[in-house]
């Protein structure tokens, strides 16, 4: 963006905690690259409170009225998952680019429906997978691309979080029709996306899920073994029952192990590079990045704004954003059928294409 470029006009759909706790602070940190022109929420009193706290000039109770009233260039969708598809489609049809919270949609079918509303040169819909954008992950991605660490062999991807029973008192949580799944869909999706963004396309998965403690329709834990096109194999665990919470990824390459342990975001200090015994330690000292960009909504928004300025598809959109949703569908299908699932199995004829439960139940109305 040049000095003379006007700020991007941003509108927000959904005035809940993720808007105030993550998106608005991120926008404020971008040094004038954006201006928030409106916020919409069915609960207009809540929207007015957020608007007053953040100096947002316009409040709407309806997304259609907001799009017509302020004509934003970028829409941030911060609603519960059941409302994602409709909000994203309306924003795209109004000519706005979109950044939508996770999970992108309730199903692969909904994701593909959204993609049909994108233009050949934009606007595009992208999805919040902020852990890709920290400097350490970016550095590791470059190293994998150049083969600097050798071949990827073994990976571990654990999202071990804790959510008390009271967390699920929110009506839309823990239900297939409104949340789309349990921790595999709504929580571990962040670490799994980072795993896939680094190791590339997956080919097969075998998985098991269970509902051990929480009063939910969905799972509260899941376990999976994932095979990648490169031949690498990963162990993936998602839990909402783990009192010592952690997000942990480990990558074993021919010449090094790279690990990160954090909770909801990392900086360089959360990562370690350990060379194989045969590798000169002096070489390994140069492996961590020299810059220190924390994984955050601000880091992803910066990449999105750069893509908008250049008129190109942003990261975490299109096929790039779909990959993790495919894996989640594969995990649920494998767990339900007690059989391995190939990525190629998940076409439009498969029940798990239409809903993560595989039951083809009617989608909840919003």
TrEMBL record:
Keywords, ordered alphabetically:
NAD
* Keyword NAD belongs to the record: yes
What PANTHER family does its record include?
A: D-GLUCOSIDE 3-DEHYDROGENASE, UDP-N-ACETYL-2-AMINO-2-DEOXY-D-GLUCURONATE OXIDASE
UniProt key word NAD: yes
List the signal peptide residues: none
The GFO/IDH/MocA-like oxidoreductase domain covers which part of the protein? 138-256
Species this chain originates from: Frondihabitans sucicola
According to the entry, every stretch annotated as the Gfo/Idh/MocA-like oxidoreductase N-terminal domain falls at 8-118
InterPro entries noted in UniProt: Gfo/Idh/MocA-like_OxRdtase_N (IPR000683), Gfo/Idh/MocA_Oxidoreductase (IPR052515), GFO_IDH_MocA-like_dom (IPR055170), NAD(P)-bd_dom_sf (IPR036291)
* Protein name, per record: Oxidoreductase
């Amino acid at each position: 963006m040049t000095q003379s470029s006007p700020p991007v006009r941003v509108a927000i759909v959904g005035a809940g905690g993720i808007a105030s706790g993550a998106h608005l602070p991120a926008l404020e940190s971008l040094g004038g690259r954006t201006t928030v022109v409106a916020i919409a929420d069915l609960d207009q009193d809540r929207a007015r409170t957020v608007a007053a706290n953040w100096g947002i000039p316009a409040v709407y109770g309806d997304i259609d009225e907001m799009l017509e009233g302020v004509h934003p260039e970028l829409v941030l969708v911060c609603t519960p998952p059941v409302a994602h598809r409709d909000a994203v489609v309306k924003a795209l049809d109004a000519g706005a680019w979109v950044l939508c919270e996770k999970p992108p949609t309730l199903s692969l079918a909904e994701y593909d429906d959204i993609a049909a509303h994108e233009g050949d040169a934009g606007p595009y819909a992208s999805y919040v997978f902020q852990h890709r954008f920290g400097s350490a992950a970016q550095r590791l991605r470059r190293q994998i691309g150049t083969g600097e660490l050798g071949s990827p062999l073994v990976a571990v991807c654990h999202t071990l979080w804790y959510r008390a029973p009271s967390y699920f008192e929110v009506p839309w949580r823990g239900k297939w029709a409104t949340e789309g799944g349990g921790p595999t869909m709504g929580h571990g999706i962040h670490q799994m996306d980072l795993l896939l963004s680094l190791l590339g396309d997956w080919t097969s998965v075998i998985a098991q899920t269970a509902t051990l403690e929480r009063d939910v329709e969905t799972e509260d834990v899941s376990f999976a073994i994932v095979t990648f096109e490169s031949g690498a194999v990963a162990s993936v665990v998602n839990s909402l029952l783990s009192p010592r919470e952690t997000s942990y990824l480990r990558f074993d390459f021919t010449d090094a192990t790279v690990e990160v342990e954090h909770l909801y975001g990392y900086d360089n200090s959360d990562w370690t590079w350990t060379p194989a015994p045969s590798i000169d330690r002096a070489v390994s000292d140069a492996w961590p990045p020299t810059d220190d960009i924390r994984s955050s909504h601000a880091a992803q928004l910066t990449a999105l704004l750069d893509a908008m300025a250049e008129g190109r598809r942003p990261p975490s959109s299109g096929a790039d954003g779909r990959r993790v949703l495919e894996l989640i569908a594969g995990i649920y299908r494998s767990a339900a059928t007690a059989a391995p699932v190939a990525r190629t199995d998940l076409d439009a004829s498969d029940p798990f294409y239409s809903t993560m439960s595989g039951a083809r139940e009617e989608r909840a109305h919003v």
